Fold this protein.
Amino acid sequence: MDFIGGISAGKLDADNWLAAQLAEAAEFLRERLGMLRPQIGLVLGSGLNALGEEIETPVRIPFIDVPHMSASTADGHVGCFVAGTLEGEQILAMQGRLHGYEGNSAVDVAFPIWLMALLGVRTLITTNAAGAINDTFHVGDFCVMSDQINFTGRNPIANAQAAGMAERFFSMTDCFDPSLRALAMRAGREEGIGICEGVYLGLLGPSFETPAEIRAFRAIGADTVAMSVCEEVIAARHGGMRVLGISLISNMAAGVGAMDGEGGASPTGGEVLDVGKANERSFSALVRAILRTMAQ
Ligand code: HPA
């Protein structure tokens, strides 16, 4: 079954309020996008919103203007769609995202991702700032997500409406596209940017983790941790998109680096945004190199 069967709003199941809301939002955005037909979606995470300003011939649409979408309330998140071109590719970027910790449901978080799918976006690049659980990683490096552990306790497809829009049961194996991962690793190396690959674990937040939680997450195979992405990736795979996930390592996770159980990292929200700001240039260079390679 295709995502929402590729059908128009008029033919949707009248009982499916979610599909009807998405169709209404898509109609609104289509009108604002004019001739633009973006095939690549880009979610710009904490401290990484600046790349949205580099998009050429931008069409800016605040989230709150889009029917049925929630506003973004997180620090360092603008809360705006920016459509236009970057490296010759038509893209639809989200300058900021919606998080569960802002009080959004899993469906709210997934809504803009399904919306992108409905607008014809085939590839999603989702980015965030994350803490490193793996102590061989470095602050300021970028980590390509090789797989994810959804520890939010939620799933946007766990309701009749979302399940009615596409297959209810779908594979999450290779949820991060292997060829896009290889392409991103190559692009990072060629640009001389610190790049690594690892398993991402997503939480609801907003409290940072305890050192004991971080030790437990390391034991189950996580390399990085943050409070976003997992629900988006599930929605994107549900919508049939290829996904690339990239974290900026903004800090070492709680307790990492402790000696004899004492001390170690204790992240703050300010640190996360500051490291994003300090690495704006390399983030832009990495995403641009990825877009150029994708176009070839
Ligand atoms: N934990 C959770 N979320 C985060 C972190 C972290 O260490 N860094 C950035 N987002």
Notes: The longest strand covers residues 242-252. The pocket of hypoxanthine is lined by residues 129-131, 208-209, 225-227, 250-251, 253, 267, 272 (CB under 6 Å). The chain is about 30% helix and 25% strand.
